[in-house]
Amino acid sequence: MAGQICWNIENSWFNTFVYDKIAKDPAIISWMVGVSAIVSTFATFVIGTWGDRAGKRKPFIVVGYICWGLFTMVFGATEFIPTNPLIVAAVVIVAADAIMSFFGSTGYDAGFNPWTTDISNEHNRGKLGGAFAAMPVLATIFGAVVSGMIVDAIVFFPFFMLMGGIVSVTGVFTLIALKDDPGLKARKNAGGYWRQFAEVFHIRTVMANKELFWVFVINCVYFTAFNVYFPYITIYLNNYLSMSYTLSGTLQGIGLLAAIFMTIPVSRYINKGKMVPVIFLAVVANFAGLLLISLFSHIAVLLIGIFGAGIGYVLMVQTITAWVKNLYPEEMRGQFEGIKMIFAVCIPMVVGPAISSFVIHHYGVHMEINGVAGMVPTESLFIVSALITLFTLLPLLPADKHVKQRLRTNVKKSQLEV
After folding, report:
1. Are 289 and 311 in contact (CB under 8 A)?
2. Domain at 2-407, CATH from 3.90.650.10, 3.30.1490.270, 3.40.50.2300, 1.20.1250.20
3. Tell me: the pLDDT tens digits for 210-249?
4. Residue 173's pLDDT band (boundaries 50, 70, 90)?
5. pLDDT tens profile 8-58
6. For residue range 97-118, what is the model confidence (pLDDT) as tens digits?
7. HEC string of the chain?
């Protein structure tokens, strides 16, 4: 939960902070999101491989979380750097976010995520996926509703200090309370670290895990569409629709909280291997929700739209989490988290904001906010995101073929054993 709160702050409030305190230029946000995505992916690969070789996750979780919180505080301090020349401020902000992302991925993606795979199995990962889907939503509610109230009350710097402190304290807590899976064994390739690191990129690894890589592609397409609109939704509600942080946060919080309840019945379908119908439902709900957000400004309709987009998000996270964990090679879980990061974070967070920047520059509106002129996103951003979401259905077809083949094979094996 602490990790998801910190990711939510980065994905939403860092962008809003830059817009309010540095410059109303979407290019800075695009650079910040893109660089942090690349750094996060690199960190997950390097640290994830290290964790596989060491046969331990805890040290990386502890160090990652403590430093993650500290550098969240450092990012908040960038509010006090001069903005003239703007390029210097932009470079400092992008660098601060990248360092924070490195430690975030060390603790969460390379440490915590493989740890949850270590301690779970294919019979309970539907529920685990539900928990994974609920955490970012609860974090978004906290980040939107509570954080909106805090920012309105005490502005950004104390807010970042408070949130960073929570994450660092969680890191200290894991030092005392968290335990590695006793069955986890170190796996050291005879060729050394870098040979083991490169092994996951070999074509034979891809061919041996076809279903897993199609699931990665599904994840990539969906979250590319997600990253077109999500970094700017608070900016859209605050600046284009003239809402306060508290009101926009409340809207997002209520809509997403309602969506969480869908994870409870869906977990049973996921545990039975019915991932494809759930993802189809997620795509349809997300598409419909984004269209409602783009077409209407009435609060009630916006709430329904956010609810629809929220259903798409939570079901996608829940399903993909369980699906990939069931397919990870046991001895390469940390490394495969790095592969997942390429498809779930690196590509979507580079391509998505790049699309956003293009759409905002060409179809946004010039506005002056607090005496500063800039480009503000309009409803066109949500239309583009909705259309890109539909492309998720294309890789779903071969993934469906492979999952049915795998399930048939498992049934035959069970019958032979009987």
Report:
1. yes
2. 1.20.1250.20
3. 999 999 999 999 999 999 998 788 888 888 888 887 788 7
4. very high
5. 777 667 767 777 767 666 677 778 878 888 898 889 988 988 888 888 999
6. 899 999 999 999 999 999 988 8
7. CHHHHHHHHHHHHHHHHHHHHHCCCHHHHHHHHHHHHHHHHHHHHHHHHHHHHHCCCHHHHHHHHHHHHHHHHHHHHHHHCCCCCHHHHHHHHHHHHHHHHHHHHHHHHHHHHHHHHHCCCCCCHHHHHHHHHHHHHHHHHHHHHHHHHHHHHHCHHHHHHHHHHHHHHHHHHHHHHCCCCCCCCCCCCCCCHHHHHHHCCCHHHHHHCHHHHHHHHHHHHHHHHHHHHHHHHHHHHHHHCCCCHHHHHHHHHHHHHHHHCCHHHHHHHHHCCCHHHHHHHHHHHHHHHHHHHHHCCCHHHHHHHHHHHHHHHHHHHHHHHHHHHHHCCHHHHHHHHHHHHHHHHHHHHHHHHHHHHHHHHHHCEEEEECCEEEEECCCHHHHHHHHHHHHHHHHHHHHHHHHHHHHHHHHHHHHHHC
* CA–CA separation, 323 and 402 (whole Å): 12
